[in-house]
Design a protein that fits this description.
single chain, 283 residues, mainly alpha, two-stranded antiparallel ribbon, 6% strand, globular
Amino acid sequence: MTQFISPLDDTLIRFDAAAALLANREPNATPDAMLEMLVQAAWRGDYNPPCQYEDNDYDHSQRDDPDNWLRIPIEAPSASLTEGQLSLKPRPFKYYEGGCETLLSVMYCMRLLPGDQSAWDDLLNNGNGRMYLHGAQDALTALVGLPLNTYSEAGRAYFAGLYIPRRMLQAWLDQRSSRFLRLFNHDQASDHHPITEPANDRHSHAAQTRRGRPTLGAWPSIAAWALELNESDPDMPRKELAGRLYERALQEFEAADVPNETTILRRLAGMLDNREPPMRGDA
């Protein structure tokens, strides 16, 4: 869960920003057409993380990789809000990792699916005592075939605000066309960096100087807290540790000075292995 994702993030990109870049590369397509392509792929499950039986992911390392999940904005749970915040419309949102069924559930509850809400109720919620979202597969199949213009303005805006890992999107595009080569990871490829690391994710001082992007203010404290927490509880899952570090940083720094939770998780190995953490330019 992440409270804020910076538009300067070098690992994630919003659907609308991705659609604009794709349309700029493909002169015969509009941003709306590209957004529709991304949305249909999301409904098909193209951006779902692998299950443990795919690619022999028995240790869940691929499923636990933040680069294999969409970031879906969801209203913060009531228990996390103050009494005054409970009456707000809309309520504050946070970003959660999810796949197509999470997206379906959220948009259904927010009444953002296209057409008659009662028909969606019959399919997803009122199935003669069957479980909630019992018709999820039928719904997903139908949604793949619905164009973007069948959604309300609020629904289209919600799609625009989804975030997708750049690495995931680039891999998906490369399987379908050669026209978008390195569009979303150009720096990584051109500098011969591993695709799993941002282009400025280097441990050498020279590389950091060359990139010339400033260090976010919270990084030194995050690195120190990571060592403290790991020493006190070395068995704490890295994902939980990243979440705690992110929440603590938000309490002590402005949001613009705090890297997102995904970036913190990605950097933990470097911090805890006593290597210099690659902190430059991380949003």
